[in-house]
Design a protein that fits this description.
The protein is an alpha/beta fold and 514 residues long. The chain is globular and about 70 Å long.
Length: 514
């Protein structure tokens, strides 16, 4: 088998990432040398790759589905929003500046060359490349600068599977309308549909699918059922709903639960850090967006941020800053990760990210932070104060300029993080995925919170949970998608006889050809 295809979506969060991961895992289990690719991602959930850059977390998960280490090749362009109008531009894993929509338009030719070169390289090396689109190809106002949807598919002649989320409602109209609004040349590559998150009897949907085929000339390759057990490694913080639970809590092993409130910052980054806690039986994790949601929690987590100073000000406006100070005064456990760790300190001096200069932190740790270029990007390993091994990765501009608190870890031979009673802080993302460390630390949290009846499991493995979710995705693909037709698309490309829908309204001259 040799080929490539693009999985596009009718909307953001339609299920593109999980469908790509499932296809990749399914093919890898069959012995196919497969790689993922997302030309351009917009997400503040990122990881550090083996080659020293950063990519979207979804592509790291897709790489794992393929049995590969994450690489900047799999996501050559990453946009990390720091506000509603500006994003940090990361190219081949390295930050190259901050751009707005109009600035980005000027970069399109250079970025298109980067994307085309990386995709060609992957196709030469692997049997199959499964590409993921971004947002929706129906965003025709962005067609001229599109790198990840039809702007990728047309020059590479990639067949396109269009995924729609039926749980949102109106999925048949979304699928039809997405095809209809495209230029005729783009329509020719839309080769079939996938329905995601279906609940109930699929035969009730069949008449609608048949009519969709009559109207578009394109088949539905499958209907994926809603799977409640799929939750780890969410694509981006847009799907992190304020005040919603994380995962599906399993009953406690002892007499008591341990409750966790994670602050849902406006510019939250690496929100997936808390998912390791949600893997534990008896640990109930919820997002919190206002002070009352922190009350009664045994642990509060202040996660990372792409706009640390701005989110710190939001903590003050929302009243959460006062709630955190009151909690610390009462001896309540608090964990800060990366940007959240920086906010817990005495002050932050930031001429880089916000340009705000020196601002006061929450004053809960004896910690001074200074922002500087270049951004720190590294995988890190070491141990905590008791010698338990830990691993994680760092993505931050802020450096510790001074601290009077004991270090939490020794990482690569250097002190890292802070501890002050039941307050902990670290720049390490992913540290809670170190199973032995997480168990020992949760015992400390439970003791500080007075939860003597909470029992920590001895066998929870975050890596095993993630692997089981990838296998579940592959199982869903194999059971509910027409895999034979999928493989024909990979080897033969888009069918030559796909009809053009007459409702396509925009003339070709309205957009820039790819």
């Amino acid at each position: 088998m040799k080929g490539a295809l693009l999985v596009a979506g009718t909307t953001s969060d339609a299920g593109k990432s999980v469908v790509v991961a499932g296809i990749c895992r399914m093919l890898a289990r069959r012995g196919v040398r497969v790689a993922p690719f997302k030309a351009q991602n917009m997400s503040n959930n990122s990881v550090v790759t083996l080659d020293g850059g950063e990519i979207g977390r979804a592509q790291a998960l897709q790489a794992q589905a393929c049995g590969l280490e994450p690489s900047v090749r799999f996501n050559p362009v990453l946009l990390k929003p720091g506000s509603d109008r500006r994003s940090q531009l990361v190219v081949r894993g390295r930050a190259v500046g901050t751009v707005g929509a109009r600035d980005y338009f000027r970069h399109r030719r250079e970025l298109r060359e980067v994307v085309a070169a990386e995709l060609a390289s992957l196709r030469a090396e692997f049997d199959v490349v499964i590409c993921e689109g971004a947002g929706s190809p129906a965003e025709i106002n962005l067609r001229a600068t599109d790198l990840a949807n039809m702007g990728l598919a047309r020059p590479a002649r990639l067949p396109v599977l269009l995924v729609g989320d039926i749980d949102r409602g109106g999925v048949l109209a979304h699928l039809f309308g997405t095809v209809a609004i495209l230029e005729p040349e783009d329509q020719q590559l839309i080769s079939g549909f996938v329905i995601n998150k279906f609940r109930g009897d699929v035969e009730l949907l069949r008449p609608g699918l048949d009519r969709l085929t009559e109207l578009t000339g394109r088949p539905t390759l499958g209907v994926l059922p809603y799977a409640e057990d799929l939750w780890i490694d969410a694509e981006d913080s847009l799907s992190t709903v304020a005040d919603a639970p994380v995962g599906r809590p399993r009953p406690p092993l002892g007499a008591e639960w341990l409750t966790v409130a994670a602050v849902r910052l406006p510019r939250i980054s690496n929100s997936t850090d808390i998912e390791a806690l949600a893997c534990e039986p008896g640990v109930s994790v919820r997002w919190a967006s206002e002070p009352s949601r922190l009350a009664g929690a045994d642990l509060v987590v202040l996660p990372g941020s792409k706009a640390t100073v701005s989110d710190l000000e939001w903590l003050r406006r929302s009243g959460i800053a006062d709630a955190l100070r009151a909690r610390a005064a009462a001896g309540g456990p608090i964990l800060g990760i990366c940007g959240g760790y920086q906010m817990l300190g005495e002050h932050i001096d930031d001429p880089v990210e916000s340009g705000a200069g020196r601002v006061d932190g929450l004053g809960l740790l004896d910690l001074a932070i200074e922002f500087a270029d270049p951004k720190v990007l590294r995988r890190s390993g070491g141990h905590d104060a008791s010698g338990i091994p830990v691993r994680g990765y760092e993505i931050h501009h802020g450096r510790v300029a001074g601290t009077g608190d004991p270090a939490w870890f020794e990482i690569d031979g250097q002190p890292e993080g802070s501890v002050r009673g039941p307050l902990w802080g670290t720049h390490l993302h992913g540290v809670l995925e170190s199973d032995e460390f997480r168990r020992a630390w949760l015992r400390s949290v439970a003791a500080a919170a007075g939860r003597a009846g909470f029992v920590v499991a001895e066998d929870t493995s975050v890596a095993a949970v993630r692997a089981s979710q990838l296998d579940l995705l592959a199982d869903l693909i194999e059971r509910h998608l027409d895999v034979d037709r999928l493989e024909r698309l990979l080897t033969d490309g888009a069918p030559a006889d796909l009809p053009t829908l007459a409702t396509a309204a925009l003339p070709t001259s309205a957009t820039s050809p790819s």
